[in-house]
Request: fold
Amino acid sequence: MTSANNSIPALLPRGRGHQFLLYGDSCSGVPGALHEKTFASVNAVAQRLSPQPEFVLFPGDEIIGLTPDPDALRAQWSYWLDTEMAWLDRAVIPMWHTTGNHTTYDLMSEAVFRAVLELPKNGPPGQAGLSYFVRRGDLLMVFVNTLWSGLGGEGPCRARVAGNNAQRTW
Reply:
């Protein structure tokens, strides 16, 4: 908690609405690495918001990732969640994530992402914990994994056309 004289007034919705924090692309998770200090300075500002947000959205690339070693990847996630994000009580203020090219770049990294973040498993077949939706009262948030290995991973963009089995690649 911050003292009232050190707080930063948060933007609040006019009337009914939702107050949240959106930030991402920290590419951190490694003690002493290049982005750790920058991410710490951003987190210091986020901690001063008053009131604190109802929830946090983190649209990918929390960690530097991009390693073929699952233990090293889990260590990055552990450091990011347990040290760099320790200030955020996720039981009180939930955090929702989307996939990113640093975090879900192959089958192994998708499996680690799913296991570490334990996100809802209500997405399309094969994408449980990668694509999902969350309802908060009148708000529906949909998180889409555009990097899914089942559709070719990063690079090719494919979309299924609703109502038929046609697939378009662009």
